[in-house]
Amino acid sequence: MSARTVKPRHVFRDGGEGGPSRPVLPWKISLQMSWANITNRLGRFFLVFLGIAVVVAFLMSSFTYQSVVSDLSETGDVHVRAVLEKAGVFAGDAASRKYQKDRNAWLMALSCLLCLVVITNTMLMSVGERVKGIGTLKCLGALDGFIVRLFMLESVFIGIVGSLAGALLGYILTVLQVGASLEFSILSARHLVEPLVVWVPISVGAGTIITVLAAVYPTYVASKMRPVEAMRVEV
After folding, report:
1. CA–CA distance, 50 with 38 (Å, rounded to integer)
2. What is the spatial distance between Cα 120 and Cα 111, in angstroms, rounded to a whole number?
3. Distance CA 210, CA 212 (A)
4. Considering the domain boundaries, does residue 14 fall inside one?
5. Residue 50's closest CA among 146, 160, 162?
């Protein structure tokens, strides 16, 4: 919503022939405006990026570790099983393993909840900073759907980039951890490639969905803002 990057006369165009005139916001302009809003507020959006990356890194780390250890534990290789036993992978009874699994699930759930709160709060602050810009767009003819589209595109951009960074970070750290605590020699190409193919898309998708869900309420607040009241606000 920056007038410096997108000229107002190019934002909206007449939307049809033979019917009532209605403004249309082209997708190309929507993408340009959303990207400009992110780059103009890098400090603010960095908090969202960091929160998403940390949560997704934790998710990816848990998925990768469980996948690799599970594959290794099913092998019949004597040396591999000896390394796993020495590292304590098979230590503890069934109840202890279930407790650890439940504990990890709770930690992941709490991390996702914390991420939702941080992103929602940051997006609300972003809405407060852009009140006048939203009012300007509405005075130019922007419909509620236009505002929703801009904020949703921003959340998708940040969600994908932050989730991808977090997934790769979680994968790298987990591989190093498993290799250091066990032995790098027992990790085959399959153990290294499978988490990338299977769990990276799932982790990135989960992080993006969390980001979009967290942006729903701030987006609703922005879209329902009355243009006259917005233009009166001193920012």
Report:
1. 14
2. 14
3. 6
4. no
5. 162
Q: Which carries the bigger pLDDT value, residue 108 or residue 13?
A: 108
Mean per-residue pLDDT over the chain, rounded: 78
Torsion angle (degrees, nearest 10) of CA 41, 6, 120, 59: -80
**Residue 2, pLDDT above cutoff 50:** no
Q: How big is the CA angle at 198 (ends 203 and 214), to the nearest 5 degrees?
A: 15
What is the per-residue DSSP string for 8-72? GGGT-EE--SSS---EE--HHHHHHHHHHHHHHTHHHHHHHHHHHHHHHHHHHHHHHHHHHHHHH
Q: Is residue 24 part of a domain?
A: no
215 domain residue, yes or no: yes
Residue 201 placed within a domain: yes
Q: Point out which residues pair with 23 in neighbouring strands.
A: 14
**Residue 152 belongs to domain spanning:** 37-225
**Number of domains comprising the chain:** 1
